[in-house]
Structure formats: C-alpha cells, structure tokens
Amino acid sequence: MSADLALKDLSEIADAIAARTLTSVQATEACLARIESWQPRTNAFLRLDKDKALARALAMDAEIASGKRRSALHGVPMAHKDMYYRKGEISTGGSAIRKDWRAPVTATVLERLDHAGVVELGFLNMAEFAAGPTGHNVHYGHCRNPWNGDYVTGGSSSGSGASVAARMVYGALGSDTGGSIRLPASACGVVGMKATYGRVSRAGAVARSWSLDHVGPLTRTVRDNARVLRIVAGADPRDSTASEKPVPDYEALLEGGVSGLKVGVALPEGLTPIDPQIGAAVEAAAATLGKLGATISKATLPDFNALYRAAEVLVKCEAAAMHRPWIESQPNSYANQVRTRTEAGFFIPATEYIDALRLRAHFAAEFLATALAGIDAVLLPAIPFALPTIAETDVEAAGGPATLAMVGRFTGLTRPFNTLGIPVLSVPGGFDANGLPIGLQLVGHPFAEGTLYRIGHAYQGVTDHHKKVPA
Amino acid sequence: MKFEDKRLAEILAEVKILTDAVRKESNARLAFDDDPAAFASVMAQEEKTK
Predict the structure, then answer these.
(1) What percent of chain A has pLDDT over 70?
(2) CB–CB of A231/A182 below 8 Å?
(3) Run of H or E including A437
(4) Phi and psi of A238, rounded to 5°?
(5) In the annotation, is A245 catalytic?
C-alpha cells in the first residue's frame, strides 16, 4: 500500500472515500504501515487493534458501495487518547491502577464517531490520569516527539499529538484541563481545539477536573479539525454541562477570510518569560494575518497568575476528591509527580475552592469586556519557550516543588483559558532553532469556534508549517 | 493520610500560595450573592456569533 496515502489530510481521505476513488481499507492499511515504522520511534500507541480496524473499514466500504455515507468522516481511521471509555474494553487512563480495568460504558464522543463511520485504530499514550504537560509516562514509557525523539511531545494528550504529527492517524481526540490539547498540538506541529467549556460532552471520559475538562480534536489542518469538532460537539443528556446550543457547520465557515476581523496580539509574561524566537513567530503570524486583511492591534490581558492559581485550586481539589481512595490505599501505584501534584488538594479549604468557582464568572466577564472587547481573537504563544528534551523535564525523582515549577512553566499561557472556559485554537506557527515546532494560540469569544477556525484556515492557506512532515 | 514533615511543609507552602491568591481575588470581586453557577450563564449570555 502506498505510504503516500498516510500523508494526505483527513478531509482529502474522507472525500476520496466518498468519491470511491479510495477505500477505507486502503486508508487503514496505509495508517497501519505508517504505525509499524513510527511506533518504535514515538511510543504513541498504547493499544492497536489491526483486525478490528480492518474489519470496520471493510464494513464502511460496503456501506459506501451500497450508497450509504454516514458523515463527512465516513471510513476515516482515527485513534484516541486512552481515556475515552469503550464498553467492555480496557481503558487505562495512562495509569497502572487501571491497566486491566474495563469500561462499563462507551464515551459519548466515541459513540458519535462510531455513528459517523470512523474507523478506530486503537488508543494512544497519555500522561497518567491526564496529569502532566510533557508526555512523560513512567508506566507505559514516555511518548517521543516525531520531530526528534529526544524531545517532549507535550501533554497530557501526548500520543494524540505524536500520532497525528507522524501521520500514523488522520486525527485523534485529546482532552484539555490546563493545556493538554494545545501543548501537544504546539510541540508536535499539529492543530488542536479546546472548544468552549460545554461544547463537547465529557461523558465516558476520565476526568482530571470536572470544572475545567474540555474534550477536543487534534488534526493536521484546521479544515480537518473543524470537520471532527462538528461531529463530536453538541448536547448530551449524559453530561449536564454539555451545551444545547446548535452546532454550526464549521467547515462551511472556513472560506470567509480574515478581512474585517480584528486580532489582538499578546506576549504575556505569565509565569515564564517568552523566548525571543517564540515571540518572533507570534509577531510573524500577526503580520501574515495583517497582510490577509485582518486588523491587528495589541491586546491587553489580565493577570494570568490569578487565573492560573484559581485553576490550580479547582484541579487540585477535584483531583484529590476523585483520587483519594487510591492515594490512600496504593500511593505507590502513582507516578511521584502525579501524586505530589494532587496532594495539596487535601488541604485547601472548601471555602477557597468554592470561591475559585465563584470567581470564574467574574474573570470571564472581565476578559470579555477588556481583552476581547471589540476584537475577534487574541493571538499569543502556546508554549513560551523552545521545547526542552525529555531528560531536561524529568522531575519524577524530584517530585513536589520541582514538579510544580515545571508544570507552571509549561502551562502558564494555556491554563488561564481553562479557567475562562473560552475557545482556543492552537495552530502550527513555525519551528525553533532546534527544528522543533512552535505553536500559536487563537483565543475567541464563547462558542465562536467558527471564527477561530476561519482565522486559522486563512493562516494555513498562506503558510506551510502544517505541511511539513517529520522525517 | 500521613506525610513526612518535610513533605507536609512543602504541601502547606503550596496551599498558602494558592489560597492567598484566591482570597486576594475574592476580596476584590466577590459579593454575598455570587453564585458558582454564574459562570455557565456568562458563557451563554456572552456568546458572539459571527
């Protein structure tokens, strides 16, 4: 099977399957061939089910032959972070504790992809219980960046970023509590969407923090991402936070261009100074959008430290509540860095937890009235420094304060937007001096994912960062 | 749940940083009637369709 098939975008593959110029089996075999050569280099997959995937692809081809096309994703091979439950199957959450645990239900997002005709190749590496911004996993082996295996992938959706970047899959679901979609998207050079809180159901997915968790897709292009989000988004009686707002046809909005749109540019210091080469990539992207017709201005952002600390209070308290039985009974089953990050949650007063929840409405209203007032999107970096290596960020032995410092460095520019709940699209914005990807964040108004896709698509129309393939 | 003294001191130092930060913002912003569920309303009300 031609390996070139694996290099095509999700939308190209889906459209070719629909046009019957390509079969789902051919696309699946191309991904499997790509996985065979790239899995040893990346450790992106935790489980791969070739026979099941090929049987499913065959069934999807039979439906196309009979004139049935389920959706714009019919026959497309994907794989997902190993935290989305499939009834009766193992779902580890990247943990040792659940290495043999079988899920009692299927996640709503997997049900929607099933209904859409997607072929599931398997499940992907991730940080233990979605707690970790680098891609380290002491239980299943660290995930490695396809651009250079010595470097981090970003996390916690490490396998999602690596598998999409290495062209092993056409798209993958990740999740984002403090940057876990945007960090791997940025580090691996792919597109990631953390949609508005409640846009995508979390039912049947491992929680990190119920108040801050967001489900979303990682893909190679903005168009692909828009196509997947439309399928997985929407109301869900199994998740009371899932919005009942109608889901737009995001792909139909892509060609609107950026003329008339207003983009604010920000280089906030957050918890970490911004590396000049990262800042230069942001400025270059702003100039590109300006040439395309967008009005560019300087954005004024609030105190990110306050937003960050509020998120930390929420995630630590909620994680402590859900993990308490296991931390009490089998503390050594956790990675040191995961357990020590959670422990403060046992000591934070309930009053501060509730106040952090009450503050969110104020923070969000203030951000909309200031940073996003009169503009359509804020452009800023995702990771403020050039990517470090896996060895440089290994805090497993140090634990405690070293872990907090490392997490703060990585998530200083991403976690505040989980507090705010507003949509953020991460798009590839170039490469650093070491040849590792740089990611850009586009932050928008609540439920204005379509506008972010429109800006990202226009940017990808005149740049080629997303077209480069790891060798 | 028991912790060694050194680890307990680290945890309590982290808790102080977090609670101090939240209290500072709470004192500046929150009033008696502020409801945790108001966040969802802000998301819904501030929706901006383009």
Answers:
(1) 99
(2) no
(3) strand A437-444
(4) -85, -10
(5) no
Cα angle value A161/A240/A250 (rounded, 5°):
50
Which residues are CB-contacts of A432 (< 8 A; sequence separation ≥ 6)?
A275, A277, A278, A386, A387, A438
Ramachandran sector of residue A43 (left: φ over 0; alpha: ψ -120 to 50; beta: rest): left
User: pLDDT for A222-252, tens place per residue?
Assistant: 999 999 999 999 999 999 999 999 999 999 9
SS3 (DSSP) at A390: coil
| Nearest chain A residue to B11, by CA | A344
Segment among A74-83, A85-94, A211-220, B37-46 with least mean pLDDT: B37-46
B28: nearest CA partner in chain A: A359
CA A382 vs CA A53, A89, A103: distances in Å:
34, 34, 33
Identify all chain B residues contacting A347, using CB atoms and an 8 Å cutoff: 11-12, 15
How would you classify the pairing of strands A424-431 and A191-194? antiparallel
**Known catalytic membership, residue A157:** no
Q: Are A412 and A308 in contact (CB under 8 A)?
A: yes
pTM here is: 0.97
Closest CA to A412 of A439, A388, A436, A382: A382
Residue pair A411/A179 in contact by the 8 Å Cβ criterion: yes
Provide the token pair at A389: 């290596």
Query: H/E/C letters for each residue in A140-164?
Result: CCCCCECCECCECCCCCCHHHHHHH
Q: Which of A91, A180, A201, A211 is an active site residue?
A: A180
CATH of the domain at A259: 3.90.1300.10
Cβ atoms of A412 and A300 closer than 8 Å: no
Rounded CA-CA distance A199/A191 in Å is 18
Q: Which of A8, A81, A194, A316 is catalytic?
A: A81
**Angle, in degrees to the nearest 10, between helices A350-369 and A304-329:** 150
Mean pLDDT, residues A394-418: 88
Interface A–B counts its CB contacts (< 8 A) at 117
Cβ distance A448 to B48 less than 8 Å, yes or no, reads yes
Domain that holds residue A402: 4-467
Q: How many domains does chain A have?
A: 1
What does the pLDDT look like over B13-22, one tens digit per residue?
Answer: 999 999 999 9
